[in-house]
Hints:
There is one protein chain. This protein is an alpha/beta fold. It has helices at 31-38, 67-72, 78-83, 103-112, 116-119, 146-149, 155-161, 178-183, 195-207, 220-228, 233-250, 284-287, 309-320, 329-334, 346-349, 372-375, 386-389; strands at 56-62, 92-96, 125-127, 134-136, 165-170, 188-191, 212-218, 257-262, 268-269, 277-279, 290-296, 299-304, 324-328, 355-359, 364-366, 379-380, 390-397. Helix 10 packs antiparallel against helix 11. Residues 1-6 have low confidence and may be disordered.
Amino acid sequence: MAQPAAWDTPEPLAVSSAPVPEYGSGSLADLLPTLAAGMGVPGMTASIPELTPADRNCVFLIDGLGWEQIKAHPEEAPYLHGLLRTSRGGTGRPLTAGYPATTATSLASVGTGLPPGAHGLPGYTVRNPDTGELMNQLRWQPWTPPGAWQPYPTVFQLADAAGVHAAQVSSPAFETTPLTKVALSGGTFLGRLTGEERMDLAAEQLAAGDRSLVYTYYAELDGAGHRYGLDSDTWRGQLMYVDRLVQRLAEQLPPRSALYVTADHGMVDVPFDELHRIDFDEDWELRAGVALLGGEGRARHVYAVPGAETDVLTCWREVLGEQFWVASRDEAIAAGWFGPPGQIDERVYDRLGDVIAAARDDVLLIASEREPKESSMVGNHGSMTPAEQLVPLLEVRS
Protein backbone atom coordinates (compact mmCIF):
# COMPACT_ATOMS: atom_id res chain seq x y z
CA MET A 1 0.00 0.00 0.00
CA ALA A 2 1.41 3.40 -0.97
CA GLN A 3 2.27 5.83 1.80
CA PRO A 4 0.42 9.16 1.96
CA ALA A 5 1.82 11.85 -0.29
CA ALA A 6 2.90 13.91 2.72
CA TRP A 7 5.37 11.17 3.64
CA ASP A 8 6.95 10.99 0.19
CA THR A 9 10.49 12.26 -0.27
CA PRO A 10 10.28 15.36 -2.47
CA GLU A 11 11.90 15.04 -5.88
CA PRO A 12 14.76 17.41 -6.63
CA LEU A 13 14.24 19.98 -9.36
CA ALA A 14 14.93 18.51 -12.78
CA VAL A 15 17.93 20.02 -14.54
CA SER A 16 15.80 20.23 -17.68
CA SER A 17 13.28 22.49 -15.92
CA ALA A 18 15.72 25.40 -15.60
CA PRO A 19 14.89 28.29 -17.99
CA VAL A 20 18.04 28.26 -20.11
CA PRO A 21 19.25 31.61 -21.56
CA GLU A 22 18.36 32.27 -25.20
CA TYR A 23 21.86 31.98 -26.62
CA GLY A 24 22.00 32.63 -30.36
CA SER A 25 18.70 34.49 -30.61
CA GLY A 26 18.03 36.69 -27.59
CA SER A 27 20.96 36.86 -25.18
CA LEU A 28 23.39 39.62 -24.27
CA ALA A 29 26.04 37.86 -26.35
CA ASP A 30 23.91 38.44 -29.47
CA LEU A 31 23.59 42.21 -29.16
CA LEU A 32 26.91 43.66 -30.34
CA PRO A 33 27.37 41.13 -33.19
CA THR A 34 23.91 42.11 -34.46
CA LEU A 35 24.76 45.81 -34.37
CA ALA A 36 28.20 45.26 -35.91
CA ALA A 37 26.73 43.10 -38.68
CA GLY A 38 24.40 45.97 -39.55
CA MET A 39 27.44 48.21 -39.94
CA GLY A 40 29.16 45.75 -42.26
CA VAL A 41 31.78 44.39 -39.86
CA PRO A 42 33.09 41.11 -41.35
CA GLY A 43 32.33 37.88 -39.50
CA MET A 44 29.44 39.28 -37.49
CA THR A 45 25.97 37.69 -37.52
CA ALA A 46 22.67 39.49 -36.90
CA SER A 47 21.14 37.07 -34.39
CA ILE A 48 18.46 39.56 -33.27
CA PRO A 49 16.82 40.17 -36.66
CA GLU A 50 14.18 42.63 -35.44
CA LEU A 51 16.88 45.25 -34.81
CA THR A 52 17.03 47.59 -37.80
CA PRO A 53 20.63 48.42 -38.82
CA ALA A 54 21.93 51.88 -37.98
CA ASP A 55 25.16 53.63 -38.95
CA ARG A 56 25.76 54.82 -35.39
CA ASN A 57 25.04 52.56 -32.42
CA CYS A 58 25.37 53.26 -28.71
CA VAL A 59 24.97 50.62 -25.99
CA PHE A 60 24.30 52.03 -22.52
CA LEU A 61 24.73 49.21 -19.98
CA ILE A 62 23.30 49.93 -16.53
CA ASP A 63 24.66 47.49 -13.98
CA GLY A 64 21.88 45.67 -12.13
CA LEU A 65 18.89 47.06 -14.05
CA GLY A 66 16.62 44.06 -14.68
CA TRP A 67 13.62 44.06 -16.99
CA GLU A 68 11.30 43.18 -14.11
CA GLN A 69 12.66 46.00 -11.97
CA ILE A 70 11.78 48.55 -14.66
CA LYS A 71 8.28 47.09 -14.99
CA ALA A 72 7.77 47.32 -11.23
CA HIS A 73 8.83 50.98 -10.90
CA PRO A 74 6.97 53.16 -13.43
CA GLU A 75 6.95 56.18 -11.11
CA GLU A 76 10.71 56.15 -10.47
CA ALA A 77 11.61 55.39 -14.10
CA PRO A 78 8.94 56.95 -16.34
CA TYR A 79 11.19 57.34 -19.37
CA LEU A 80 12.54 53.78 -19.20
CA HIS A 81 9.07 52.40 -18.47
CA GLY A 82 7.76 54.11 -21.57
CA LEU A 83 10.43 52.38 -23.64
CA LEU A 84 9.17 48.95 -22.57
CA ARG A 85 6.53 49.41 -25.26
CA THR A 86 6.81 50.75 -28.79
CA SER A 87 7.17 54.45 -28.16
CA ARG A 88 9.45 57.45 -28.46
CA GLY A 89 10.78 56.21 -31.78
CA GLY A 90 11.91 52.85 -30.39
CA THR A 91 10.94 49.42 -29.16
CA GLY A 92 11.52 47.40 -26.02
CA ARG A 93 11.99 43.70 -25.32
CA PRO A 94 13.90 41.60 -22.80
CA LEU A 95 17.12 39.74 -23.44
CA THR A 96 18.52 36.94 -21.29
CA ALA A 97 21.76 37.74 -19.54
CA GLY A 98 23.34 34.28 -19.79
CA TYR A 99 24.36 31.97 -16.96
CA PRO A 100 25.42 32.96 -14.44
CA ALA A 101 23.73 36.36 -14.43
CA THR A 102 26.67 38.22 -12.94
CA THR A 103 28.75 41.21 -13.97
CA ALA A 104 32.06 39.69 -15.10
CA THR A 105 30.32 36.98 -17.10
CA SER A 106 27.83 39.33 -18.71
CA LEU A 107 30.34 42.03 -19.63
CA ALA A 108 32.49 39.40 -21.32
CA SER A 109 29.44 38.10 -23.19
CA VAL A 110 28.53 41.63 -24.31
CA GLY A 111 32.02 42.56 -25.43
CA THR A 112 33.08 39.34 -27.15
CA GLY A 113 29.68 38.29 -28.52
CA LEU A 114 30.35 34.81 -27.13
CA PRO A 115 28.53 32.73 -24.50
CA PRO A 116 30.23 32.09 -21.13
CA GLY A 117 31.37 28.60 -22.06
CA ALA A 118 33.37 30.06 -24.94
CA HIS A 119 34.79 33.33 -23.57
CA GLY A 120 35.71 31.58 -20.32
CA LEU A 121 34.46 33.88 -17.56
CA PRO A 122 31.72 31.55 -16.31
CA GLY A 123 31.17 32.92 -12.83
CA TYR A 124 32.04 35.38 -10.09
CA THR A 125 34.78 33.07 -8.81
CA VAL A 126 35.91 29.91 -10.61
CA ARG A 127 38.80 27.50 -10.26
CA ASN A 128 41.92 28.12 -12.30
CA PRO A 129 42.82 24.60 -13.48
CA ASP A 130 46.49 25.58 -13.81
CA THR A 131 46.88 26.65 -10.18
CA GLY A 132 43.97 25.01 -8.38
CA GLU A 133 43.06 28.38 -6.84
CA LEU A 134 39.80 30.27 -7.02
CA MET A 135 40.01 33.15 -9.48
CA ASN A 136 37.81 36.20 -8.87
CA GLN A 137 36.95 37.30 -12.40
CA LEU A 138 35.45 40.64 -11.38
CA ARG A 139 38.42 41.81 -9.31
CA TRP A 140 40.93 39.65 -11.26
CA GLN A 141 42.48 38.16 -8.12
CA PRO A 142 44.87 36.43 -8.03
CA TRP A 143 46.31 38.12 -11.11
CA THR A 144 46.19 35.94 -14.22
CA PRO A 145 47.48 36.85 -17.72
CA PRO A 146 44.34 38.33 -19.33
CA GLY A 147 45.09 37.23 -22.89
CA ALA A 148 45.57 33.63 -21.83
CA TRP A 149 42.39 33.61 -19.75
CA GLN A 150 40.23 35.14 -22.54
CA PRO A 151 41.99 34.97 -25.93
CA TYR A 152 39.19 36.02 -28.30
CA PRO A 153 38.99 39.51 -29.85
CA THR A 154 36.21 41.81 -28.73
CA VAL A 155 33.55 43.10 -31.11
CA PHE A 156 35.00 46.58 -30.55
CA GLN A 157 38.41 45.41 -31.78
CA LEU A 158 36.86 43.81 -34.87
CA ALA A 159 34.77 46.92 -35.54
CA ASP A 160 37.78 49.20 -35.16
CA ALA A 161 39.76 47.04 -37.60
CA ALA A 162 36.87 47.36 -40.07
CA GLY A 163 37.00 51.16 -39.98
CA VAL A 164 34.17 51.74 -37.50
CA HIS A 165 34.74 54.47 -34.91
CA ALA A 166 34.74 52.47 -31.66
CA ALA A 167 34.77 54.03 -28.18
CA GLN A 168 34.05 53.18 -24.56
CA VAL A 169 32.93 55.95 -22.19
CA SER A 170 33.06 54.89 -18.56
CA SER A 171 34.61 55.59 -15.18
CA PRO A 172 38.35 56.31 -15.39
CA ALA A 173 38.86 53.56 -12.79
CA PHE A 174 38.02 50.91 -15.39
CA GLU A 175 40.44 52.01 -18.11
CA THR A 176 43.29 49.62 -17.30
CA THR A 177 41.52 46.75 -15.55
CA PRO A 178 42.04 43.23 -16.89
CA LEU A 179 38.27 42.78 -17.21
CA THR A 180 38.08 45.81 -19.50
CA LYS A 181 41.01 44.47 -21.51
CA VAL A 182 39.48 41.06 -22.15
CA ALA A 183 35.84 42.15 -22.51
CA LEU A 184 35.54 45.71 -23.75
CA SER A 185 38.78 46.94 -25.32
CA GLY A 186 39.06 48.20 -28.88
CA GLY A 187 39.08 51.71 -30.25
CA THR A 188 39.32 54.52 -27.69
CA PHE A 189 38.61 54.46 -23.94
CA LEU A 190 37.41 57.79 -22.53
CA GLY A 191 37.07 58.15 -18.77
CA ARG A 192 34.56 60.54 -17.21
CA LEU A 193 33.51 60.70 -13.57
CA THR A 194 29.87 61.79 -13.63
CA GLY A 195 26.95 60.18 -15.37
CA GLU A 196 26.05 63.42 -17.12
CA GLU A 197 29.57 63.76 -18.51
CA ARG A 198 29.41 60.21 -19.84
CA MET A 199 26.08 60.79 -21.58
CA ASP A 200 27.28 63.97 -23.24
CA LEU A 201 30.55 62.42 -24.37
CA ALA A 202 28.84 59.26 -25.63
CA ALA A 203 26.66 61.41 -27.86
CA GLU A 204 29.74 63.26 -29.13
CA GLN A 205 31.50 60.00 -29.88
CA LEU A 206 28.51 58.73 -31.82
CA ALA A 207 28.73 61.77 -34.06
CA ALA A 208 32.51 61.41 -34.49
CA GLY A 209 32.27 58.80 -37.26
CA ASP A 210 30.09 57.97 -40.22
CA ARG A 211 29.90 54.53 -38.61
CA SER A 212 30.23 54.48 -34.83
CA LEU A 213 29.99 51.86 -32.09
CA VAL A 214 29.96 53.42 -28.61
CA TYR A 215 29.60 51.78 -25.20
CA THR A 216 28.87 53.56 -21.94
CA TYR A 217 28.29 52.21 -18.45
CA TYR A 218 26.85 53.10 -15.05
CA ALA A 219 27.51 50.96 -11.95
CA GLU A 220 25.99 52.64 -8.90
CA LEU A 221 22.48 51.21 -9.23
CA ASP A 222 23.91 47.73 -8.70
CA GLY A 223 25.88 48.85 -5.64
CA ALA A 224 22.77 50.36 -4.06
CA GLY A 225 20.86 47.12 -4.64
CA HIS A 226 23.56 44.98 -3.07
CA ARG A 227 23.94 47.19 0.00
CA TYR A 228 20.37 48.31 0.65
CA GLY A 229 18.03 46.21 -1.48
CA LEU A 230 15.46 46.97 -4.15
CA ASP A 231 12.94 48.26 -1.61
CA SER A 232 15.28 50.94 -0.30
CA ASP A 233 15.03 54.68 -0.91
CA THR A 234 18.68 54.62 -1.96
CA TRP A 235 18.03 52.13 -4.76
CA ARG A 236 14.91 54.02 -5.90
CA GLY A 237 16.88 57.25 -5.94
CA GLN A 238 19.54 55.66 -8.13
CA LEU A 239 16.84 54.38 -10.49
CA MET A 240 15.41 57.89 -10.82
CA TYR A 241 18.88 59.20 -11.64
CA VAL A 242 19.47 56.46 -14.22
CA ASP A 243 16.14 57.30 -15.85
CA ARG A 244 17.26 60.91 -16.29
CA LEU A 245 20.61 59.81 -17.72
CA VAL A 246 18.95 57.68 -20.38
CA GLN A 247 16.66 60.53 -21.39
CA ARG A 248 19.61 62.94 -21.48
CA LEU A 249 21.52 60.69 -23.89
CA ALA A 250 18.47 59.91 -26.01
CA GLU A 251 17.76 63.60 -26.55
CA GLN A 252 21.29 64.16 -27.88
CA LEU A 253 21.47 61.37 -30.46
CA PRO A 254 22.99 62.55 -33.74
CA PRO A 255 21.34 61.62 -37.06
CA ARG A 256 21.32 57.96 -38.16
CA SER A 257 21.79 56.75 -34.58
CA ALA A 258 20.30 54.05 -32.39
CA LEU A 259 20.61 53.88 -28.59
CA TYR A 260 20.23 50.53 -26.86
CA VAL A 261 19.76 50.48 -23.09
CA THR A 262 20.54 47.15 -21.48
CA ALA A 263 22.00 45.60 -18.31
CA ASP A 264 24.19 42.76 -17.13
CA HIS A 265 21.65 41.18 -14.76
CA GLY A 266 18.61 41.87 -12.61
CA MET A 267 18.43 41.33 -8.85
CA VAL A 268 16.40 39.81 -6.01
CA ASP A 269 16.31 40.73 -2.32
CA VAL A 270 16.89 37.76 0.01
CA PRO A 271 15.62 37.95 3.63
CA PHE A 272 18.09 37.61 6.50
CA ASP A 273 16.95 34.41 8.17
CA GLU A 274 18.02 30.78 8.24
CA LEU A 275 15.22 29.68 5.93
CA HIS A 276 16.43 31.94 3.14
CA ARG A 277 20.19 32.05 3.84
CA ILE A 278 21.85 28.64 4.07
CA ASP A 279 25.38 28.90 5.45
CA PHE A 280 27.84 26.55 3.76
CA ASP A 281 30.44 27.25 6.43
CA GLU A 282 28.09 25.92 9.13
CA ASP A 283 26.63 22.94 7.23
CA TRP A 284 28.74 19.81 7.54
CA GLU A 285 26.67 17.90 4.97
CA LEU A 286 27.26 20.46 2.23
CA ARG A 287 30.96 20.79 3.12
CA ALA A 288 31.64 17.06 2.98
CA GLY A 289 33.88 16.20 0.04
CA VAL A 290 34.14 19.81 -1.17
CA ALA A 291 37.61 21.18 -1.88
CA LEU A 292 36.61 24.64 -3.15
CA LEU A 293 33.38 26.65 -3.15
CA GLY A 294 33.14 29.07 -6.08
CA GLY A 295 30.55 31.25 -7.76
CA GLU A 296 28.22 33.28 -5.56
CA GLY A 297 25.20 32.74 -3.36
CA ARG A 298 22.65 32.07 -6.10
CA ALA A 299 25.00 30.48 -8.64
CA ARG A 300 27.52 28.12 -7.10
CA HIS A 301 30.45 26.26 -8.64
CA VAL A 302 31.36 23.36 -6.33
CA TYR A 303 34.74 21.66 -6.75
CA ALA A 304 34.92 18.24 -5.17
CA VAL A 305 37.84 16.40 -3.66
CA PRO A 306 39.03 13.97 -6.38
CA GLY A 307 36.86 10.87 -6.27
CA ALA A 308 34.05 12.52 -4.30
CA GLU A 309 32.23 14.12 -7.25
CA THR A 310 29.28 11.69 -7.28
CA ASP A 311 28.83 11.83 -3.51
CA VAL A 312 28.87 15.63 -3.48
CA LEU A 313 26.31 15.77 -6.29
CA THR A 314 24.03 13.33 -4.45
CA CYS A 315 24.30 15.23 -1.17
CA TRP A 316 23.70 18.64 -2.70
CA ARG A 317 20.62 17.36 -4.51
CA GLU A 318 19.27 15.87 -1.30
CA VAL A 319 19.89 19.00 0.77
CA LEU A 320 19.17 21.75 -1.77
CA GLY A 321 17.33 20.09 -4.63
CA GLU A 322 13.89 21.51 -3.83
CA GLN A 323 15.19 25.10 -3.99
CA PHE A 324 18.14 24.90 -6.39
CA TRP A 325 18.66 23.32 -9.77
CA VAL A 326 21.64 21.08 -8.97
CA ALA A 327 23.57 19.61 -11.91
CA SER A 328 26.84 17.91 -12.61
CA ARG A 329 29.22 19.77 -14.89
CA ASP A 330 28.32 17.58 -17.87
CA GLU A 331 24.58 17.87 -17.17
CA ALA A 332 24.79 21.67 -17.06
CA ILE A 333 26.76 21.75 -20.31
CA ALA A 334 24.35 19.38 -22.05
CA ALA A 335 21.39 21.48 -20.86
CA GLY A 336 22.93 24.59 -22.43
CA TRP A 337 23.46 26.57 -19.24
CA PHE A 338 26.77 28.05 -20.42
CA GLY A 339 25.95 28.21 -24.12
CA PRO A 340 25.23 25.75 -26.91
CA PRO A 341 26.99 22.50 -25.91
CA GLY A 342 29.15 22.55 -29.03
CA GLN A 343 30.52 25.99 -28.12
CA ILE A 344 32.12 25.08 -24.77
CA ASP A 345 35.86 25.62 -25.08
CA GLU A 346 38.13 22.87 -23.82
CA ARG A 347 40.10 25.43 -21.80
CA VAL A 348 36.89 26.39 -19.96
CA TYR A 349 35.67 22.88 -19.09
CA ASP A 350 37.63 22.50 -15.84
CA ARG A 351 36.82 26.03 -14.72
CA LEU A 352 33.22 24.87 -14.26
CA GLY A 353 32.28 23.21 -11.00
CA ASP A 354 32.02 19.46 -10.63
CA VAL A 355 28.60 20.36 -9.23
CA ILE A 356 26.71 23.51 -10.23
CA ALA A 357 23.82 24.87 -8.16
CA ALA A 358 21.46 27.59 -9.43
CA ALA A 359 18.79 29.00 -7.10
CA ARG A 360 15.13 28.85 -8.13
CA ASP A 361 13.59 30.15 -4.90
CA ASP A 362 14.37 33.32 -2.93
CA VAL A 363 17.29 31.64 -1.17
CA LEU A 364 21.00 32.20 -0.88
CA LEU A 365 23.84 29.78 -0.21
CA ILE A 366 26.18 32.03 1.76
CA ALA A 367 29.62 31.30 3.19
CA SER A 368 29.83 33.54 6.24
CA GLU A 369 33.46 32.83 7.12
CA ARG A 370 35.14 32.78 3.71
CA GLU A 371 32.84 35.35 2.03
CA PRO A 372 31.74 37.75 4.80
CA LYS A 373 31.15 40.75 2.52
CA GLU A 374 29.18 38.84 -0.12
CA SER A 375 27.20 37.01 2.58
CA SER A 376 25.93 40.30 4.01
CA MET A 377 24.43 41.68 0.78
CA VAL A 378 20.68 42.40 0.65
CA GLY A 379 20.28 42.26 -3.14
CA ASN A 380 21.71 39.28 -5.00
CA HIS A 381 21.78 37.77 -8.48
CA GLY A 382 23.35 35.01 -10.55
CA SER A 383 20.69 32.42 -11.31
CA MET A 384 18.17 31.82 -14.09
CA THR A 385 14.99 33.24 -12.58
CA PRO A 386 13.30 36.00 -14.61
CA ALA A 387 14.10 38.64 -11.98
CA GLU A 388 17.82 37.97 -12.44
CA GLN A 389 18.03 36.74 -16.00
CA LEU A 390 15.83 39.14 -17.97
CA VAL A 391 17.54 42.39 -18.88
CA PRO A 392 16.12 45.21 -21.01
CA LEU A 393 16.81 45.88 -24.64
CA LEU A 394 15.28 49.33 -25.02
CA GLU A 395 15.78 51.14 -28.31
CA VAL A 396 15.64 54.83 -29.19
CA ARG A 397 16.40 56.02 -32.71
CA SER A 398 17.13 59.49 -34.00
